[in-house]
Amino acid sequence: MRGIPSRVERTFRSMAAWDPHQDVAHAALLSGSGRSGTTWLLEAYARAGRLRPVFEPIRPDLEPRLEGLRPGRYVPADAPHLPGEEVVDDILTGRYRHPWADQQATLNPLNPYRGRLIKEIRFPMFAGWLAARHPELRIVHVIRHPLATLSSQSVLGWSPERFHYMLSQPLLMDGLLQDVPVRDLRIDDPATALVARWAVENTVAARTYGGERAALVSYDLAVADPAALNPGATELDIDPAHLSHLDRPSSMSHAKGSNAHAGKDPLAWVARIDPEQAVAARRVLEAFGLGDPFRDSGEVDADALQAWWSAQAR
């Protein structure tokens, strides 16, 4: 595993990136909740398709012009404007440069990219706005079993604060999710709140750019069978035969974070989930209509997941 590059290496990678296509037509989004395997897919697809990997550029703490896109901020697809719209447009068209965002880029300045793949765990809450304005924009959405993401987030000390921020947004709770009894759920512990955050993010994604508008990939299924990556490859105009080194963990893998590649056992996280946590999580999933795709055993029902994704599209 190459590991996370130093600040100096990030700077050189940003300087070396040759991105000659400055239009949205050469951009694609890779979206999903945090700790869902998005970095692994970014590296796999970018490697196979010679795409410029843009790593989580929506960072208000690094780019003040993005302060309106606080993590967890919901922006309706029909909103007149997107906070930080000018910066986001630069990101889509390849003009944006930042050592953090370009940390996955190649150090070979003589190798031009065929396009760019922008990976962001904040996209679920506002990428519907981008999809509505850019029909040519390709999108791949990644979903991982919610209890696997919970295991990883808990080990890394993630806070449920973002979920509570979501609850405070009327446009989200009384608008897009008005049919989901989110406020009625008994969520009185951080672990359940993290699962609820996962459910909100993926439901918002499904309802704003789901169905046929985006390719859906299950990380859990892709680890077991690389063929599950094919829908995303097709969306990105990549020959699936070019996908390689899929047994490698991503640069963001954490040995204790339940990443299937880090521990080599894709279901190792199951033993780390407290039974009471599993019961509380099940209540959340049922409320969002996500009970069928995700089993307590850690397995994912591909047909049920695709059916849910398609049914949510609006």
How does this model look, in words?
The protein is of the alpha/beta class. The chain is built from 13 helices and five strands. The protein has helices at residues 7-16, 38-49, 85-92, 127-133, 146-155, 161-167, 170-176, 190-209, 219-224, 230-235, 260-263, 275-287, 302-312, and strands at residues 27-32, 51-55, 115-120, 138-143, 215-218. A five-stranded parallel beta sheet has the order 2-3-1-4-5, with helices on both faces. Strand 2, helix 3 and strand 3 form a beta-alpha-beta unit. Helix 6 (161-167) packs across helix 8 (190-209) and helix 8 runs parallel beside helix 12 (275-287). The chain is globular.
H/E topology pattern: HEHEHEHEHHHHEHHHHH
Task: Give a short account of the largest sheet.
Answer: 5 strands, parallel
Structural class comes to alpha/beta
Please list the strands of the largest sheet in the order they lie side by side. 2-3-1-4-5
Number of separate strands: 5
Q: What's the mean pLDDT score? A: 94
Low confidence ranges: none
Q: How many helices does DSSP assign?
A: 13
Radius of gyration: 18 Å
DSSP helix fraction? 25-40%
